[in-house]
Amino acid sequence: MTTARPTLPSDELSLEASSSNALSRPLVLGIESSCDDTACAVLDGEGRVLSSVVSSQLAAHLEYGGVVPEIASREHLRNWPAVRAQALSLAGVALAEIDVVAATRGPGLVGSLLVGLSVGKAIAYGLGKPFFGVHHLEGHLYSPFLVPAPSTSPSAAPASASARAALPDPAHAVPERFIGLVVSGGHTALYSVLSPKAGASAVDTLCETRDDAMGECFDKVGKRLGLPFPGGPVVDRLAELGEHKRGHAPLPARPKAPEPRTLFFRTSRCGDTLDFSYSGLKTQAIVEVERLEREGFVVDPGELMRLSGLEPSALAQSDARASSQFAAIQLLAAFRDAAVRQVIDRLDRYRRSVACSRPADPGPTGPSPTDPSRPKARLAHAPRTPQPIRELGVSGGVAANRALRRALVQWGERERIQVHLVALAFCGDNAAMIAHAALRRHHQGETGDPLATDAKSRLRVG
Ligand code: ADP
Ligand code: MG
């Protein structure tokens, strides 16, 4: 028995003044709804981001201090029609012109995933086009190769055949092998990615966090200071105002603590493994905030929010009120430094570990400067594709962190490794990265997942 294909509304099928004739095919529609962002994007066959629209649900969850799954699913349902319409309109593409459809299938909140996945499958079925269910992390891993387009801002005017003067740049070529660092609210992990031009790609997990993810750690410290969720971006801006030296930051004196003292945040070691761990750092930061309060500092989140928009020179420390905020800022500067140093430490360990295990392979940059007496780090999972680091892709929400970006660029220069930092526009969850992952799979000759693809709240990558 055959089922009649549902017909799509005619306004979606015929967008006037479509410019898609000039675009390379296939045109890919990507959908992302794994957590609290409803996102839709259109890419052309060369990975050009024709549009990328992200609608944040932060306001709906604000009073709960975190994401409420039931509210998230309802918000996705409510936001989707406008997000889709805007993505198609900005791209200047009609729904009927879409050649490939992709949506995130996991991991994430299952109710949220179901909204995007069901919509994507219905569109693909209605159009008779291939559908790809994409792993959220696969999306992040390839996102450093996306180039943001000027027209991807939601406030930008819709593109039309006549209005689109110049096409955005195509995506950067994806290296055949690279190490992927994903740092986000839910993940802190290193992956080995084998991405051949033809045939299936392979993703191996090299190491993960044992406890909190880096973004989660920033958010919890921000929460303890009374900052709005997610705390990561504000903590980062405040830390920019502070001064520290490798995790050591001087604090101003107070009546209950008349001797100036220096804060120090240690980098978690995790033995000789490659594992990340951020729960100890989070706890230390919270304990230090409590100590500041006992010493008579009065941290004011409203004042911190105001200061987070300022330049360092605007920070007056003269009165007691200002010196309390200054103490919190110093604390955050030292905290952020320790968080970033952990990432650099694990990259160094991985580099040493592979150099030790593969002495015959000097890599493109000549023999490693590794000290042979240093112990080799153990890998959490034996990779199918162990590889020296030649190129590093960095992605996820925390990849927006200013100190992390600076440190990774310096590390790449020092170690002569090409570091691909995700563009700020694609650090957080977005649908361009989902469309890009599907485009790669399409180019590799995959025919698309069956429409029976299920949403999975837990899903291993690779
Ligand atoms: P996930 O998909 O795992 O929920 P995202 O990739 O959407 O995570 O990233 C969100 C996380 O990134 C949040 O924890 C947020 O605080 C963090 N984040 C965003 N910008 C910054 C920044 N500049 N510094 C530190 N953390 C940040
Ligand atoms: Mg994410």
> Radius of gyration, rounded?
24 Å
Structural class: alpha/beta
Q: Mind telling me the CATH class of the domain at 10-173 and 426-443?
A: Alpha Beta
User: What's the number of extended β-strand segments?
Assistant: 12
CATH architecture of the domain at 10-173 and 426-443: 2-Layer Sandwich
The CATH topology annotation of the domain at 10-173 and 426-443 reads as Nucleotidyltransferase, domain 5
Question: What is this entry, summarized?
Answer:
The protein is of the alpha/beta class. It contains 12 helices and 12 strands.
Question: How would you characterize the overall build of this protein?
Answer:
- This protein has 462 residues and is an alpha/beta fold.
- Among the domains are: 10-173 and 426-443, Nucleotidyltransferase, domain 5 (2-Layer Sandwich), CATH 3.30.420; 214-343, 2-Layer Sandwich (Nucleotidyltransferase, domain 5), CATH 3.30.420.
- The chain has helices spanning 10-13, 58-61, 69-91, 110-127, 136-142, 214-224, 232-241, 279-294, 301-307, 320-357, 402-415, 432-443; strands at residues 28-32, 37-43, 49-56, 100-106, 131-135, 177-183, 188-194, 202-207, 248-250, 262-264, 391-395, 418-421.
- A hairpin with a 5-residue loop joins strand 2 (37-43) and strand 3 (49-56).
- The model is unreliable at 1-18, 152-163 and 359-375 (pLDDT under 50).
- The protein binds adenosine-5'-diphosphate and magnesium ion (MG).
- Adenosine-5'-diphosphate (ADP) binds at residues 35, 184-187, 215-216, 218-219, 230-233, 236, 396-398, 400-401, 428-429.
